[in-house]
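Q: Two folds, back to back.
A: First:
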Amino acid sequence: MEPGAETIILVLSATVFAIVAVSGRLARLSITEPLMAVGIGILITFLVVDPIDIRSPAALTFLELTLALVLFTDAARIDVGRIRRQYRWPARMLLIGLPLAMVLGAVVAGWILAIPFGAALLLGVILAPTDAALAEPVLESEVLPVRVRQTLNIESGLNDGLALPVLFIAIGLIESEAGRSVSSSVLLVVSLVGIGVAGGALLGLAGAWVISRATEHGWMDELHQKIAAVALALGTFAAVEVLGGSGFVAAFVAGAVLGARVRPKCEYLYDFADTEGRALVLIAFVFLGAGPIYQLIREGVPWQAWVVSLVALFVVRPLAIAVSLIGEKLLLSTVLFFGWFGPRGLATAVFLLVAFEEMTDISPLVADITFLTVALSVLLHGVSAMPASQWLAGRLEMRDRREMPEMGEAFNHPTR
């Protein structure tokens, strides 16, 4: 164990313990757990430990495995079949809003920063995915209609996995712009995405078959189903990475396959997401607070980073979502609410780290923009979650509920 590792472990354990000990109080104060985790991460770096280098092998591995588990469990908990039948809104937000947000983000970044298209697209993709952990008060708010909550739940559960192929396309474009041959850049993208999809599908099918058969024969109880699912997620990630594909794509695909094949038996996986997975995500936010966000506070960021981050939060996402929902007859208040609650968190940070792993020539300004956006999102979405939910609930109460699509029936997907 490296020097100081015991101190870091002690601090992380104490931080998670402190957050869960006052979790009920935090909810009443409209303070989210990720906001508390980032704040403590910043504080302990000022007082106790040196800044954490999240690109170090240990920290990077932890963050990557945490995101792989998040992608796997998110894909498993969303019933894609029900999206096709019952959920036009999240489908439109994913198939129209997400691509539009990436393109608009790239246009904004390219215009303000005067960078090549590949780098601009990379930044647009990094800033597009949303994080369900930061919107938890909204997803669990009883004052909001189920259909509104489930729209954000489904979108945040699937958009990071769907953005991954475009991330690798952006990396391929940057490599091509830097002088790498077009054929090799295309091969890079195809291998990362293709091996990821194929490996994830095959391992997901195999894992689902084993879990189903073992459960039917009484060889596996719920506890060991959970262990098997987690092992499948991590094993899929590692196996596909060894083969040269994207372990993140594979984890997402494997989770979707497992959820589709053994959905009635997936309760154990949701339990994992609510316990061990939640702890891992909290530690990840402590890392972000004690590392790059602390560095931003200490060193400051250029004005260009502020402009791009604020436009991404206040203009790009709301505009993309508004366009995607044209014709759905929603209240303007609902459209604004959907547009605002696109918090950026773990996926945004790890997407940047993935780009750093694949390339070495990335402007420090891209990193500044990424972590500034995460920091602003943790703060702004954290403190606005409950007030905004109550505001929308009040606006809905003022209308005839029988004529409002927001009040329609909806299947209650598990939340993260």
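A: Second:
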Amino acid sequence: MSGNGHRNLRRLLKAAGVVLAGTTLFFAYLWLHTQHPRFELPKTAILKGRNIAWENRVGRIDNRLDQCERALADLQVRDERIYRSVYGMESIPDTVREAGLSGADRYAWMEETRRDSRLGQVTVRLDRLMKKAYVQSLSYDEVDSLARRAGDMVTHIPAICPLDPSPSSFLMTSPFGYRSDPITGEQKLHAGMDFACPPGNPVYATGDGVVETADNESSGYGNCVVIDHGFGYKSRYAHLDEYEVTAGMAVTRGMRIGTTGRSGRVTGPHLHYEVIYKGNYVNPVLFMDVTLSPEDYQELVSQAGGGV
């Protein structure tokens, strides 16, 4: 056999060997997968192992997020029921606390399949939790700012009688509660207290605050002063003969703000006095210091300047 013949034979045998080896491997792989369905290639096994490890890590993050969400929920309840309530602050609406992340699609970088994956769900949860935590931090900043002024709260609450409590200076004719309207006879809520007295008696601010309005009210209150005390409290002084303050003026407890009269819708001269807390009428007696003697009252009025 010539040299070329030998070379061709060797090439043929090598090719046959490659084909035979490939066929053998193919049938071996097919046999393994049919007879042993759990068999995996080494590379597949490694990738699956890594995937399981990442799944476990994501699972631990998910569990930690559960703990964080529970802790944040407790903080929100405490914030609403204790801190914001004590200082007369408005509640934060659920629409603000639970609001999603607005604006452009923050998750556009994630493929749809990845967004629905456990990792994608954890990413969305983490973003929402961070947003809730941010809202809560703003609330605490607001509470902290108000708490720094909490010492003022004692003097701001409307807690004294609006008139000198000396004997025979007035007669309390109509308390807070439902009654027959003295003009129409209709059963309705009397939202304050009526102090019958001659016109011209000095009327005093019952707590520190800022005059919200001082005007003649067409609603029947007549000459009327409303003081915003902060912390959710307001007080109203109606049917005045005249008022001696203007809107925007700062007043202190015991400062004279006007005199009693019979302006507006009345049947006789008296002072109508209201306390409003967070937009709701409340019984002024619940806040009034009835232990304050006439002498102490006059001392308080004197310290407040006695008038304006």
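Q: And?
A: The first helix runs from residue 3 to 35.
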